[in-house]
Amino acid sequence: MRFYTGQHQHYCGIDLHARTLYLCVLEAEGNVLLHKNLPCDRARFLEAIEPFSEAATTLLSHFPDSTKLHSRLKRKFGKGKALSILAHKIGRTVYFMLKRNQAFDPARFLATA
Q: Tell me, what's the pLDDT at 54?
């Protein structure tokens, strides 16, 4: 993946432990929007980051292969729901990457919806 220098609306940091994770979301200006200690539970993690779903639009603009997945989801679920599904998929991917200490695999990410 190429690195880019564009600004984003939100930045997120995750500190993953065996049974808990610490989540911090910041605005671009540095204001803290969310400081939360959560159990290592995928549903709770996705619920916490849902309001900050800018990741889906960032993925589409910086990772061209993701547009095919987005188009497929749009045809099946509609435009608004497709972005929400993509944001949840990103959240699940990040969670499992951190939990398993694995690098991002674009082929695996794009393989299924």
A: 67
- Alpha helices, H only, 50-105: 54-62, 66-77, 79-100
Backbone angles phi, psi at 105, to 5 degrees: -115, 100
The residues, any chain, with a CB within 8 Å of residue 58's CB and separated by 6 or more, are 8
Residue-wise over 75-111: b if at least 16 C-beta within 10 A, else e? eeeeeeebbbbbbbbbbebbbebeeeeeeeeeeebee
Separation CA 7–CA 102 (nearest Å): 26
Confidence of residue 3 (pLDDT cuts 50, 70, 90): low
Asked if residue 94 has pLDDT above 70, the reply is yes
